[in-house]
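Most newcomers find our protein records easier to grasp once they have seen one. A record pairs a protein's sequence with a compact description of its fold. An example says more than a description, so a record of this kind follows:
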Amino acid sequence: MKRYILLFIISTILTSCHSVKKSFESRNYDTVIDLFTKKKKVSDDEISMFEKSYKAALERDKEKIVQLKAINNGDRWEEIFDLYTKINTRQNSVMRVIPVFYSNGNKADIEVFNLSAALEESRQNAAQSYYDQGLKLLNSNNKTSIRQSLDYFNASKKFYINYKDINELMQQALIKGKNYVLLLVEKNPSLLLPPSFEQSILDNVKLTQNEQWVNIDYRRKDNINYDYVVKLNLYDIVVSPDVVKETQNTEEKLMEDGWQYVLDPRVNVKKRFFRQ
């Protein structure tokens, strides 16, 4: 029984070591680091792979940041912020296990940095970049562009929930981006319909699935320049037979001569028969 347990432990160690080595050979450096920080016992080979992987991952991210800073792209600062966040998360992970020493007493070269300033700079620039793009779209005369400004304002709010006057600008976008529609009903004068019937028709008219960007008025307002005027023409109303109810009223009066008369609504005799 002890033999089987020993073999299982050895197999687990070999499998774990192979996973670190395989990830290193595949250049999955972050996987190497993650596996290494979870191990309780490590070999010199694993320490070496961990050290090299950490340096390689750091250099890769730093080069990407330099490339992004060199281009004029409005979305670059969010990518830069994400890279700094990734580096910082990696550092926090390895700081739980460093310092790491080889069996000969040499310390693995794992360098960490204070990224507070870099994170704040990229966060600030990302928020400002999206703010500027949203403001440009908001100030355009195109309602489609005005609606798109909300996407940029929301992107800015990911970094600061109350960045500058962004909440007020979003309210402006919601108002300026709307299509204002005047819905009028023109009906055949011969149709005698109660106002409630006409209103029920208006209430069930759906002009769009996106009600956020459509404002419908049933009466013209002087302070609004309408983008669209929709006329609903009612020419005729057909009632299907299954909703028609027939009622019959019969009036009877008993006469002294033994005859029973059936009277019409005007109380005239329609028919008579002898009552037994």
